[in-house]
Please model this.
Amino acid sequence: QDWSPQKIENLFQKADNIYQQTHSHIQNKILINVFFEPSTRTSLSFECAMKRLGGQVINFQKDTSSLKKGESFEDTMTTLSLYGDLMVLRHPQPGQVVLASSIIDVPVINAGDGSGEHPTQALLDLYTMYKHFGRDFQTKTVLFIGDLKNSRTIHSLLLLIHKYPQMSIHILSYPGLEPEEDVFQKISNIHGQKKDTIRIKFESINYQLFDVIYITRLQQERLQTGESSLCNFMMTNKIADKMKEDAIIMHPLPRNEEIHPEVDQNHRCHYFKQMKYGVDIRMSLISEILSKKN
Ligand code: CP
Model:
């Protein structure tokens, strides 16, 4: 939240050339990967990024750790911080990453805290738009479809997009999973959009309006007791082909049924590119953080 657009652009430009740069300051450095929730992309892309930079990685395994003997979260964090130079932490509880960073001296990257934030996903998402549209991404219109209440990737991406007031944001939520009212107010205030035009209805979507359609899965694991919802959208080629020719479809993945696999071959499909850009952005971020620390 405290990054300026200039700082974000610097990170993107560094990522553009990340394989041409030398990273001697990373050698002998150790990244500690700490995942209290399942992950494929975030954990492995951070590991891949650190190794491509020439550094090393320790992967904490919660199920075989001394947490099983009753060790506290705080003591676990302190212990791990003594074994590395940078921690990547995912935790099911919002705020727990901030707590960890207040306890330990090594930098902590939030790899997702419950339904809270997922800032490096947001950076790679915006980087994907920048790679496709160039600097014009700053004027594009984005439609978010999905579990807007619980999607930490959308929470963080909204914060980034708010730094670009010329971008427009629209929202189509799965039933009962709308964001809080203040999210609509903030979009209206910052982006100058009339509040009643931000919400999009399934029955009346005009797919030609959007440059980016960003879809998320139903976050079943985050539904409260007694709460239920359903995914009532599926992106298909028939829908994709109603979009603008140069519009893109994004998804943080993993997906369930909200994008049909046939769309994978559509030229608007960018969710696999997102994963590749995730490595480049995380390399750029690690290099930046560890250069500050030296
Ligand atoms: N996008 C994302 O965070 O994926 P993983 O849960 O696989 O890390």
Notes: Residues 39-42, 112, 121, 252-254 surround phosphoric acid mono(formamide)ester (CB under 6 Å). DSSP finds ten helices and eight strands in the chain.
